[in-house]
Amino acid sequence: MVSRVIPVDPFDLVVFGASGDLAQRKILPGLFHRFVVGQMPKQARIIGVARRKMDHAAFRAQVATSIATFAPASLKQQDLVAAFLERLSYVTVDATGESGWASLAEHLRDDVVRAFYLSVSPSLFGAIAQNLQTYGVATPTSRIVVEKPFGHDLKSAQALNADLRRSFEERQIYRIDHYLGKETVQNLMALRFANALWEPLWNATHVDHVQITVAESLGVEGRGEYYDRSGAMRDMVQNHLMQLLCLTAMEPPSRFTPNAVRDEKVKVIEALEPVPQSDIVRGQYRSRGDEGSYLDHAGDPHSRTESFVAMKVNIANWRWSGTPFYLRTGKKLRARSSEIAVVFRDPPHMIFPQMSGRRGNALIIKLQPDEGITLRNTIKEPGPGGFRLAEVNLDMTFADALEQGADAPDAYERLIMDVIRGDQTLFMRGDEVEAAWAWVDPIVEGWEDARATPAGYDPGGSGPDDALMLLHRDGRRWRELN
To answer: ∠ CA(187), CA(190), CA(191), 5° rounding?
Structure first.
């Protein structure tokens, strides 16, 4: 089954920070991909904006280099690249000053969707939002997209929300988290709410525990000083892992609309119990061979910032009472791997003693590197010689099952197209962001008050030994990173 590509309405997409790394590595090559597969209408235009002085030709040359570097080889036909570049233009704008705004306003059309992607530091969000209104660049139907980090704590997140809401209504604001654009994350909702099979089992009566893992094999090289101001808790748990937890644990919304879905996600965050320090493990990777340690790259040789965090989380509601959610994320681990593992309880009466306590059934939702869903089952091992049991997987890898191939959009592509459609389902609402920070802040404050040093762990492993014990003491174990 080949996925259908449905064109969006004509649009003017203004990319602030167009000469920056994210725009050149992800946003613009992704838009080129949408153009190649026919989702971008002929009337669509992309306007790059930055402080750097540059003409249209220079900007197009820069984007051509990005496409050559980051777009799939199968898409790089010169005629397609040339046709895409014709849709690009560039305007020099001082984000916090006065220059360039009038030119930008004159550059845009009134009869198309108008969207502004702020691929810039959050410190510029408020000024850009204000100037978009002051100089008549934004309209009542315009959309504004903002990248994480959305705040450093609750207070700063509230201030950012206030800055944006002074110029835009909540219905116009799209807080992007690229994890929500992944095919498997969206399929989690389809799996739960479009099938009668799973929902009766999706509760504490049948689910023993849930593991959510976002592991990275790389360290913080090149961004150590930035990362040291956030750490794994702020950089990953507060947004990516929190979003995965919400989609896994949420109640069925009354209808599939943006606010109905986001209402249920907020309810999950508000039901999260405080996490005692005894249920949290923080780690910091050591050096290995010629590779430096976290401290070598952080800019502070005495840093207590964590590059790894694992925690046991409980949700205080009827569906999940007694079923813990174990979260972990870290740098320099054995493999790059992101997944949600829903581990089911044993049958109420186990007639096969050798399987007692094994928890043989698990639904594994793989987000990266290969998106797909696996159901682990117990069957009889084929052959004579007694009744032996074995565990086997029923696999569905989306690229194979749906024959999407090179047409499949990545997360950024899908989310940008949702912005053009005006669909906020996969974007965080302001109260959702603030609720997440309200839960995270006491955890961070607890270990900062204790001035605790993260446990060291060797690169290429599974993190600190204490993270293994977090599950072992409950009679459980982490899934292997692979």
So the answer is: 85
Q: What's the CATH fold of domain 11-147?
A: Rossmann fold (3.40.50)
Q: Show the 3-state SS of 17-75.
A: CCCCHHHHHHHHHHHHHHHHCCCCCCCCEEEEEECCCCCHHHHHHHHHHHHHHHCCHHH
Higher-confidence residue of 77 and 193: namely: 193
Smallest CA-to-CA distance from 91 within 58, 63, 122, 69 is with 58
pLDDT in tens, 143-199: 999 998 899 999 999 999 999 999 999 999 999 998 888 888 888 898 899 988 888
The Cα–Cα gap between 42 and 87 comes to 9
How is the beta sheet containing 280-285 ordered, strand by strand?
389-397, 372-380, 362-368, 337-344, 207-215, 325-330, 308-313, 280-285, 455-457
244 closest CA partner among 331, 375, 339: 339
Numbered ranges of CATH 3.40.50.720 in the chain: 11-147
pLDDT digit string (tens) for 252-297? 999 999 999 999 999 999 999 999 999 999 999 999 877 889 999 9
Per-residue CA distances from 96 to 13, 124, 131, 139 (Å): 20, 7, 8, 20
Range list for CATH 3.30.360.10 in the chain: 180-472
Catalytic residue numbers read 240
Structure tokens at 383: 């052959």
pTM: 0.92
3-state secondary structure of 83: helix
The one-letter amino acid code at 412 reads Y
In CATH terms, the fold of domain 180-472 is: Dihydrodipicolinate Reductase; domain 2 (3.30.360)
Residue 321 has pLDDT above 60, yes or no: yes
Q: Which residues, including other chains, have CB under 8 Å from residue 224's CB and lie 6 or more apart?
A: 294, 297, 298, 299
The yes-or-no verdict on residue 1 having pLDDT over 70 is: no
192 vs 172: CA distance, rounded Å: 29
Least confident of 33-42, 105-114, 136-145, 401-410: 401-410
Question: Of 29, 73, 443, 416, which is closest to residue 234 (Cα–Cα)?
Answer: 443
Q: Higher model confidence: residue 204 or residue 379? A: 204
**Higher-scoring residue by pLDDT: 330, 382:** 330
CA distance 101 to 93: 6
